[in-house]
Amino acid sequence: MSTIRRSTGVYDTGMPIVVISDGRSAGGDRMKTIDIYKRGAGSGWYQAIVDDEDFERASQYTWYARVRRGKLHNVYRIDKGPPCMRCISMHHEITRVPSSQHMDHKNRNAGDNRKCNLRVCSPAENQCNHGPRADGCVKYKGVSYRKHARKYSARIKLEGEELWLGYHDTAELAAIAYDEEAIKVHGDYAWLNRDHFPGLSDGGRGRDRYG
């Protein structure tokens, strides 16, 4: 089996993983790292982490990185069959969950494949754990600016339908309204603005005007 070796480059999973020197995560879990390689345009090296107990099995394969918008989207290996060639994601390899089932990385870091960070989910639950659109006019998830009303609106998706959460004077108040509803309808899968934007701790009194 051919193996790709890291020669140069800086590891980047797109989201920070805190590792202390003795091979444990900040939470105390024993873990090890595996080099992964992005092929094609923008080729380079990334890194995945796995539980100590899964390292030997995972490290026997060559792993590749699928990157979107500069961030690690998936870690996979190529299985040449039989009966046919296919890609197997690291999270499915680690958990032995069939590839037909969706899985979610709790911290949204595709390079963090410790079992404590992986869970089986539905496609809808996986989408609940996604952040705001990168091309959005407002940085908060579920928030839009309505020029005709000169206010911010909050909306949330539930089972394919959008729920209207009203107009708000500031983007922060709209984000808080989204978070409150997300906790109710999405539960543990909810992506919350307050976890990513410390400014929301002031109760929405700050300003984030658009237009």
Architecture overview:
This protein is α+β, with helices and mostly antiparallel strands and 211 residues long. It folds into two domains: 19-120, no CATH class; 133-202, 2-Layer Sandwich (GCC-box Binding Domain). Helix content is 15%, strand content 30%. The protein has four helices and twelve strands; from the N terminus they run ββββαβββαββαβββα. The protein has helices at residues 55-58, 90-95, 123-128, 171-186; strands spanning 19-20, 24-25, 31-38, 44-51, 64-68, 71-79, 86-89, 103-105, 118-120, 143-146, 151-158, 161-168. Mean pLDDT is 83; it is low at 1-22 and 204-211.
Key terms for this structure?
15% helix, 2 domains, three-stranded antiparallel beta sheet, 211 residues, GCC-box Binding Domain, alpha+beta, disordered N terminus, 30% strand
Number of domains: 2
Q: Estimate the mean pLDDT confidence.
A: 83
Measured on Cα atoms, how large is the radius of gyration? 20 Å
Strands in their spatial order, largest beta sheet: 5-6-7
General form: elongated
Strand content: 25-35%
Helix fraction?
10-25%
Structural class by helix and strand composition:
alpha+beta
- The counted number of beta strands is 12
- Tell me the series of helices and strands, N- to C-terminal: EEEEHEEEHEEHEEEH
Number of helices: 4
Poorly predicted sequence stretches spanning 5 or more consecutive residues = 1-22, 204-211
Distance between the termini: 57 Å
